[in-house]
Design brief:
Blueprint (H helix, E strand, L loop, with lengths): L4 H19 L8 H6 L6 H11 L3 H13 L5 H17 L1 H4 L8 H7 L2 H34 L3 H49 L3 H11 L18 H17 L2 H8 L4 H33 L12 H9 L4 H36 L5 H25 L7 H25 L5 H21 L7 H26 L3
């Protein structure tokens, strides 16, 4: 059926409207505290929705239904681990983050260990976040090229440019408040899509439930103890908890939002409530995938990639107007995630590197360089997204795999810092390098499911770092300088 003028008008209105809305916050950016922490004046509920938006990219919306289409609902076990990880962060990390006036997660590492390890952790964040975000930006091209008929490179360029405009000018305040709007749009749009599929499948939900149940599509829990199955209860509860403790407790993309809260109590409330929201949201996306399977009843290979199923359904089966709304909803998720990445990459670049090297620089210079850094990262992410074309499979898993390669090393170092007094900087560095090396090995040369990578990397980093610290301390005592 394709999109018509009404659909294009809705998409165009959304793109223009959200960009102009984000630009409303540019006048409030007078200092680094405003630009990177929104003046620490954001209410908890807005931070919660922004956290949800930050971890919900286009690849989530289009790829999670593809996973359910090909398999069942067992991916939800991983999301249950996400909720457990948030509880750990609330008790283990947030009390430390709110002791002092921190701008980035890696300032905590300097305060505990020293400058060298702060540079190492921040550098690892910049490297892996940029790589993972490049894949997420690439996912935009799948949707836009199907919906609008534009080339994939042009699709990536359009979304990157529009997102850059308000992120460049409005800083974190623009990012968070546009996230609030965009979360409402893509969740509401997905609910509309779900209702539409119900109308298109003869017999509605009763028919979908019957055929999906008989095919095992509604299975949520898998209690098998096989280490090699990626989505089991144990991989989800343990691996998902480690993954989220790392992504939400050590990754500047999320920590930056937690630091923007008015108090530690509001930060905890925002984090925990976002866990409830994310559980509902992933359940919604997975159910959409099951319903699409009941509608098409053909192998996903017919569409080329599983990630193309949902966008294809929107463009070819949805009534006009609704299809335009759903395309706008998917673009909303893309822009909210991209804006979060740009601001967090810029904040770490400036605060973890430039300000340390040029502590005498004035606020005006720092603000100018912060915006230039945002522009630089947008160009780099655009380039990485173009390189990702035709080279990835299910994008949500590829994005999680890239991020997971670094998360174990980062989490291990943070746990060494907050849980032990024995660890020192040389030992923590050795542990981090071992942990990162192990995760690279797991990624490139083994078939270990990515759901276990962070757990393994964290344990290796922590144990090696703790042991190496003891060795360095003994050597220093035996051979004092």
């Amino acid at each position: 059926m394709g999109l018509n003028k009404l659909d294009f008008a809705i998409v165009g209105l959304y793109l223009a409207g959200i960009t102009l809305f984000g630009l409303r916050f540019r006048k409030k950016q007078r200092s680094m505290r405003d630009y990177f922490l929104a003046g620490r004046e954001i209410p908890w509920w807005a931070i919660a929705l922004s956290i949800v938006a930050a971890e919900t990219s286009t690849l989530t919306i289009i790829s999670v239904p593809g996973i359910a289409y090909d398999t069942n609902l067992t991916f939800l076990q991983l999301v249950m681990g996400y909720v457990v990880g948030r509880v750990v962060i609330s008790f283990v990390f947030l009390p430390h983050y709110f002791r002092g006036d921190l701008y980035t997660a890696y300032e905590l590492i300097e305060r505990r260990f020293g400058r060298g390890l702060r540079s190492l952790t921040a550098g690892l964040f910049l490297l892996t976040r940029a790589a993972a975000e490049g894949v997420r930006v690439y996912a935009v091209s799948i949707v836009v090229s199907i919906a609008l008929g534009t080339g994939e490179v042009a699709s990536i360029a359009i979304i990157t440019a529009l997102t850059l405009i308000y992120t460049f000018e409005g800083g974190l305040a623009a990012v968070i408040w546009t996230d609030v709007v965009q979360t409402g749009i893509y969740v509401g749009g997905t609910l509309v899509g779900l209702a539409t599929i119900l109308q298109l499948v003869p017999g509605g939900w009763a028919a979908i439930h019957a055929v999906a149940a008989s095919a095992g599509k509604l299975q949520v829990f898998d209690f098998r103890t096989s280490f090699w199955i990626p989505y089991t209860f144990w991989a989800g509860a343990i691996g998902g908890a480690f993954l989220t403790t790392a992504s939400h407790g050590t990754d500047q993309l999320i920590v930056q939002r937690l630091l923007a809260a008015r108090s530690q109590k509001q930060s905890v409330t925002a984090l925990l409530s976002s866990g409830v929201a994310i559980l509902f949201q992933f359940s919604l996306f997975l159910v959409v995938g099951v319903m699409l399977w009941a509608f098409y009843r053909v192998p996903s290979a017919v569409f080329g990639k599983p990630d193309r199923i949902y966008p294809t359904f929107i463009v070819t089966q949805m009534p006009h107007g609704i299809s335009g709304l759903l395309i706008a909803a998917i673009l909303a998720a893309a822009m909210s995630n991209l804006s979060a990445a740009l601001n967090s990459l810029s904040s770490s670049s400036i605060m973890d590197f430039y300000v340390r090297l040029r502590p005498q620089s004035d606020e005006r210079t720092r603000m100018r360089l912060s915006r230039l850094s945002t522009f630089f990262w947008s160009l780099l992410l655009f380039g990485l997204a173009v390189l990702s074309l035709h080279k990835v499979g299910r994008v949500v898993e590829v994005g999680l795999q890239i991020a997971s390669v670094a998360y174990g090393a980062l989490l291990g170092v943070f746990l060494l810092g907050v849980l032990t007094r024995r660890a020192n900087q040389p030992g923590a560095m050795v542990g981090m390098l071992f942990g990162f090396g192990i995760e690279l090995y797991l990624w490139r040369w083994t078939h270990v499911p990515y759901t276990w990578w962070v757990t393994i990397g964290t344990c290796v980093t922590f144990s090696v770092g703790w042991t190496a610290s003891a060795v360095f301390r003994t050597r220093a005592a035996k051979y004092p300088a």
